[in-house]
């Protein structure tokens, strides 16, 4: 490999969030070496730009997540190719800075986090996205305080990770909102204390939440990617100090259903990327804290299935049907 700061890594264990073992490094890579255990992150950290030096953001000026970018940041090229049915060699493009559904992959070094090699790979892989995003939203973005009240809209892996983070912070009441009542059993494992099924309510969800919490929750988290749900999350918080954190991916062109004057009631709303963790700077410490038992995150509770990589399409089917949280794929 010529120039650039990127890695060639052999995948030892893969999933939607993945962990890799470094196979080789390119020219200019100084903080990683063959044999290192790393967590790939979609929201990179170069460590040298103004964004990386700022404590106000976890975005990077160069390697921040960009769902529309399909090439390497270092040279706008690709590292994969395949021979098609016509016998032509065509490029295979990259995805979210990681491209981890392969036995071997190539990453920019800014998107690889070196972790303690003693940490169990099949658990730490969840820090690539799901757990770090949800737990970080509760810890870093909202800074959930002990005794506070929380509402989580959407109980997928990210929403349940928010619940886990709020539980660890000592929230007194954690309300889970989801149209799938089967999610509540798993939610209880993550500290969720109350469950609301919008389909079973005779009134808007925010009214139910206000009745349960004497005027609204301190923090709400929107994890569904639905703007109507976002509005319910916003108005379910207590006026004067309520904070809504947006985590869901919103694929439609619809705008937020909020009137500017509603912000004058003291409620606030903010977005969150990767749990506001600076990946390369902060994830290694979190891994060490988990290893020492200083932070007790229920990693096992998020792994609902394990299967060989050859059954990846079945893993996606389980995810789409809401029957799994995270499926570990093994080679």
TrEMBL record:
Domain of life, per lineage: Eukaryota
Span of domain Alcohol dehydrogenase-like C-terminal: 157-280
Catalytic activity: a primary alcohol + NAD(+) = an aldehyde + NADH + H(+); a secondary alcohol + NAD(+) = a ketone + NADH + H(+)
GO annotation terms (biological process): formaldehyde catabolic process
Zinc among keywords: yes
Cofactor(s) essential for the protein: Zn(2+)
InterPro entries: ADH-like_C, ADH-like_N, GroES-like_sf, NAD(P)-bd_dom_sf
Pfam families from the UniProt entry: ADH_N (PF08240), ADH_zinc_N (PF00107)
Compartmental location: Cytoplasm
Keywords: Metal-binding, Zinc
Cellular component terms (Gene Ontology): cytosol
Annotated ranges, domain Alcohol dehydrogenase-like N-terminal: 21-115
GO molecular function, one term: zinc ion binding
Subunit structure as annotated in this protein's UniProt entry: Homodimer.
PANTHER family xrefs: ALCOHOL DEHYDROGENASE (PTHR43880), ALCOHOL DEHYDROGENASE-LIKE 4 (PTHR43880:SF56)
Protein's recorded name: Alcohol dehydrogenase
């Amino acid at each position: 490999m010529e120039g650039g700061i990127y890695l060639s890594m052999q995948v030892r264990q893969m999933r939607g969030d993945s962990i890799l073992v470094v196979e080789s490094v390119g020219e200019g890579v100084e903080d990683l070496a063959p044999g290192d255990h790393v967590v790939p992150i979609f929201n990179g950290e170069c460590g040298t730009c103004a964004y990386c030096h700022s404590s106000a953001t976890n975005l990077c000026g160069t390697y921040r997540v960009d769902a529309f970018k399909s090439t390497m940041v270092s040279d706008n090229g690709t590292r994969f190719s395949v021979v098609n049915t016509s016998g032509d060699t065509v490029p295979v493009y990259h995805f979210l800075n990681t491209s981890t559904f392969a036995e071997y992959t190539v990453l920019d070094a800014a998107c690889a986090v070196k972790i303690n090699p003693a940490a169990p790979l099949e658990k730490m892989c969840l820090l690539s996205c799901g757990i770090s995003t949800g737990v970080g939203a509760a810890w870093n973005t909202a800074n959930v305080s002990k005794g506070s009240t929380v509402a989580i809209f959407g109980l997928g892996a990210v929403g349940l990770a928010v619940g886990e983070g709020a539980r660890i912070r000592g929230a007194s009441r954690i309300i889970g909102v989801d149209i799938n009542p089967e999610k509540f059993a798993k939610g209880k494992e993550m500290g969720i204390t109350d469950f609301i099924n919008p389909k079973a309510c005779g009134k808007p969800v925010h009214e139910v939440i206000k009745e349960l919490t004497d005027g609204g929750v301190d923090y709400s988290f929107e994890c569904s990617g639905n703007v109507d749900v976002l509005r319910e999350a916003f108005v379910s918080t207590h006026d004067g100090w309520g904070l809504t954190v947006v985590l869901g991916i919103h694929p439609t062109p619809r705008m937020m259903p909020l009137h500017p004057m509603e912000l004058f009631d003291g409620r606030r709303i903010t977005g969150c990327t990767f749990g506001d963790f600076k990946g390369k700077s902060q994830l290694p410490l979190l891994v060490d804290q988990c290893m020492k038992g200083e932070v007790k995150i229920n990693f096992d509770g998020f792994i609902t299935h394990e299967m060989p990589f050859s059954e990846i399409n079945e893993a996606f089917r389980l995810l789409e049907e809401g029957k799994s949280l995270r499926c570990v794929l093994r080679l």
